């Protein structure tokens, strides 16, 4: 390997944990000027956490950061930007009501002492910067209504206007079309030539192959490898990303698959997904795999009436149904356990008891008054059944651990005696032991003849539990596998089979 | 498909909202004139000119507050409070210079505005609650301090009243000239200073503003302070125009007029978008309605209802435009 001088950013032995859960473990990461360094890993591998530490969003729990060879503390994003480290977010942080020039320069009061702005000079500078990137954009255009890609250009230009030397792009291609990805890659090349150091986060292997010089692979918060892109095979990357053998703790119990319960034909919601056809039978566990943002949650929300279907047919228990709000879905016997427990699943400051019985208050009330004894019975019943670990029923839900919180949410929905359970990332943010219990529960629910639609970004979970797997990518269905055909690589490939990127890569 | 990026061109559709307000002014003028030709008279123009200075001056501040994504319900009470305080001084010291009265009133307003700004920014209490509180607090205090007594016409200096009657140029009264100066100064401030642009940035996307290193709290504190100072100045404009200051009338319900002017002038209630020109036109629209109704023989009682209707109309239009934009963005966002 040739000598590349000192790295511009060097992360040494960095760890990060959030309320006791470790998300990054002893990471070493070097970034050199003039290179594109890709961060590769599955959802939740710790890529975003690492770049957020580098760009000052939060400090590491342990470890050191060196900038140009000197040890530094990066206290906030603003400080990072002034040092020359810019993070370009997946959803660009632009100001829609300001024009391009204003977007580039607003907030940069440092460069001149004058409180007034010479717009003529700024516009010229903006034009120069845009031209240096080969971006064809009028510097007076309003940002409102621009595509995500164009907004990214504005953000990159803004970073350059502050002489950024390190540009971090967090999944920049997630919302881009073919042409836009190509344009972005051209710009990345130009930045590289200008000697900028670029961190590129992604999980589409085709893109990583085209754009990067070096790859660091993260898995479960640990660095599993670093290699030159040239000479590395795709299979190798997938191997490193997935790595682990399927978790031994997950066993699939025998469940009897019955008649069809839910069927969606050619579902469509503007801007979210298109042509989605899926089927869930009684007693069946159906996995929905894909990358974050593939549109899986949106499909679940459309079925449940939160953001109703705009086109397509929905059948439930053999009958054509129209569901336009969640109440209709609940009345028909559906339950949706959302991904974000804190926001959508639990009333955090309420007691466990109230949380559990929240969805069935009508059933346990007489003339509008809740029958406390009955309520208590139900709660005790489920605490036992699901083995929820708590001090007291009157404890606030927010005091529980993630796993136990999830069980409370599940109890709440199980009390409504649903036939169909839609679980969105049921094991997100809970520890291994609790995961095993959730799996056990999912199995036993299927055995009771309930239909389960499980959205999960964790492949081992999908692999082990599902009778059938649908894979989505960019709002489309890109794969459908029966249990016997399940292979991790195939799912991974389907999940990252962006139509557009393949075309780019083949050029 | 080639990777050529489509050229992004500047569009000139940004005056869309201003043109809408202008059209409404034209339509009301034409309808009123066709029913009652006497509307197009020197008297009406004078009535409009005397009506607009106060709304224009205070709405410049209100526009900044709304642009930043907030609201200030206390402007009417700030107008009343500063006017009564300075009025008491004028009453007791007949020699007190008029210019000093304006300066003092502005400073008192500034203090009240800073208090609002402090509560909204540093303590991050919702603006609507803070200013609903100070709306009552300031009005209550002005009664207590002023003893509930009116400052009578004979205590207002002649030279002050002259500001609403005498004109330096083209028969335009001094107070209208003041308003014009404030409007132009605001336009320059919003367009050519960092702080001005930062108000838009904060209202447009406060999360992004924070990450850009803009002190969101500082901007919010600033817009409330400016609004307070302008309300203080408007207190003296009230005295000049009406020739008295009354603890219950002066500035009472004025927040409603000012917020209406800003909203019908095209400023988005969600913050981030709006212009000085639109706000000035919004003030003219209200002034035209205010003048047209008596000409048409419509009772003054209708005025409030009509103002309310126009605000709702403006909000519906704003929402429709936003929904259309959102749909277009979504359509473009479909990657399939």
Mean pLDDT of chain A: 82
Backbone shape of chain B = globular
Unreliable residue runs of chain B: none
The computed structural class of chain B is: mainly alpha
How much of the sequence lies in strands of chain B comes to under 5%
Q: Quaternary state, please?
A: heterodimer
- The span between the termini of chain B is 15 Å
Helix content of chain B: over 70%
CATH architecture of chain B: Orthogonal Bundle
What would you report as the Rg of chain A, rounded to the nearest angstrom?
25 Å
The greatest inter-chain interface is formed by: A-B, 54 and 45 residues
Following the backbone from N to C, one meets helices and strands of chain B in this order, namely: HHHHHHHHHHHHHH
Helical content band of chain A: 25-40%
- Largest sheet geometry of chain A: 6 strands, mixed
Q: Label the structural class of chain A.
A: alpha/beta
Q: What does the largest sheet of chain B look like?
A: none
> How many strands of chain B?
0
Shape of chain A: globular
Q: Biggest sheet of chain A, strands in spatial order?
A: 6-7-8-3-9-10
Average of pLDDT of chain B: 86
Explain this structure to me?
The complex is a heterodimer of chains A (507) and B (336). Chain A is of the alpha/beta class and 507 residues long. In chain A, 34% of the residues lie in helices and 25% in strands. Chain A has helices at residues 47-54, 77-83, 100-105, 119-132, 148-161, 178-193, 205-211, 234-242, 296-303, 326-332, 341-345, 352-357, 372-385, 402-414, 432-447, 459-465, 488-495, 499-506; strands at 9-18, 21-31, 36-40, 62-67, 70-72, 85-88, 166-169, 197-202, 214-219, 222-228, 260-269, 273-281, 285-290, 311-316, 319-321, 334-337, 365-366, 369-370, 420-424, 451-455, 468-473, 476-482. In chain A, β11 and β12 (273-281) form a beta hairpin. Chain B is an all-alpha fold. Chain B has a single domain (3-265, 277-332), classed as ABC transporter involved in vitamin B12 uptake, BtuC (Orthogonal Bundle). Chain B has helices spanning 16-35, 42-51, 53-67, 75-92, 98-121, 127-146, 158-162, 174-192, 194-204, 206-211, 216-242, 254-264, 276-295, 301-333. In chain B, α3 (53-67) packs across α13 (276-295) and α8 packs across α9 (194-204). Chain B starts with 15 loop residues before the first helix and ends with a helix. At the A-B interface, α2, α5, α6, β12 and α18 of A face α9, α10 and α14 of B.
